[in-house]
Design brief:
Blueprint: H1 3-14, H2 37-45, H3 47-58, H4 63-76, H5 81-89, H6 94-109, H7 126-145, H8 151-163, H9 167-178, H10 184-191, H11 196-203, H12 212-222, H13 229-237, H14 244-253, H15 261-265, H16 271-285, H17 291-308, H18 313-327
Length: about 325
């Protein structure tokens, strides 16, 4: 099998480029149809043992026994257990549904999602088709379950999908938030696990939030993205009307440190923000600063301290220490 082609097709499916229409609905994922002859034979020879474990999981044994059987299935027959996990996630037993959600999430994390280019058409290849159907089963189940009424089921799955910046998953999480399945705090925490370039469009409204903690969290998160940093600068970092806590948090996490320069050259910048901006700038600029630049920073801080009566002791200590190290190099 051409591994690059497999990775490519799996990546297309992860992004929704190959939808369910690419695979006939009458032919769901069949783990016993594994294109690897060894695995196909192994699963076939163990049908009876597998059936007994599945029966234990399904048919009313004590929860602990059912969970133990489920774990054994997952450990010994990882492909065969997948359709059962998809079934359990939707089932009435919350402990089993939550454990199945965790297992499907772990299975998704083990898959390749690298994309090499846009597809022309699905490949007529038994190995590719098997992998695509497996991927489709896992992700369609996860994407549906992010709107499950049970927090123990939906939240681990939402964590997996946001950390992978899965677009369909993100859309459904956003819809769940509108339906109040996710609180604002949980929604922001979850989406901050993904790439800002993917999740930013769902979070950018929080830059205008009246909740300073949410505003600061989202501002700091989006400040790392070149796509959203200009908006963060306008609405928070360089906005004198924004809460000081939000501005300070953004200064600590800004992607482009040159955006901090206006803050420590302006005499109007509040002391805490000035200290954070200059301290972050110097810390990240590090060895690229010359002794003369460091000396100018020290003199500037001393003047501001004298003019305002503010104690910038920790900042001055850091600057002087770095200056001494530079002149002794």
């Amino acid at each position: 099998m051409d591994r690059q082609m497999l990775v490519q097709v799996v990546g297309w499916l992860a992004l929704g480029w190959l939808g369910s229409s690419s695979l006939p609905a009458a032919e769901p994922f069949d783990p016993y149809a594994n294109p690897n002859p060894f695995l196909e034979s192994f699963y076939d020879q163990n049908r009876e043992a597998i059936s007994k474990l599945e029966d234990t999981v399904r048919n009313g044994a004590p929860v602990e026994e059912r969970l133990k059987a489920l774990q054994q299935l997952s450990d010994e027959y990882p492909d065969v257990v997948l359709p059962l996990l998809a079934e359990l996630v939707k089932g009435d037993s919350e402990p089993l549904a939550a454990r199945a959600a965790e297992m499907l999430g772990a299975a998704s994390m083990m898959m390749d999602h690298e994309v090499y280019g846009a597809p022309n058409a699905p490949m007529e290849n038994p190995v590719l088709e098997y992998e695509m159907r497996r991927h489709q089963l896992i992700f369609s189940t996860l994407r549906d379950a992010v709107q499950d009424e049970r927090a123990s089921v939906r939240e681990p799955i939402a964590t997996v999908l946001t950390s992978q910046s899965d677009e369909i998953g993100l859309e459904r999480i956003a819809a769940g938030h509108e339906q109040q399945m996710y609180s604002d705090d949980e929604y922001v925490r979850l989406l901050s696990l993904g790439s800002p370039d993917s999740t930013g469009k769902y979070l950018i409204g929080y830059l205008d939030s009246t909740n300073p903690e949410l505003q600061a969290t989202v501002g700091a998160y989006l400040a790392e993205s070149s796509q959203y940093a200009p908006v963060v600068l306008e609405k928070i970092l360089l906005n004198d009307a924004a809460p000081l806590s939000s501005r300070t948090e953004v200064a600590r996490n800004i992607g482009n440190i040159e955006d901090l320069v206006p803050l420590f050259v302006s005499p109007e910048t509040p002391a805490d923000l000035y200290s954070e901006a200059l301290g972050t700038y110097v810390e990240r600029k590090g060895s690229n600063l010359t002794p003369r630049q460091l000396q100018m920073f020290v003199e500037g801080v001393e003047k501001r301290a004298s003019d305002s009566g503010t104690d910038f002791g920790p900042l001055l200590e850091d600057l002087n220490g770095l200056y001494q190290r530079k002149i002794n190099e």
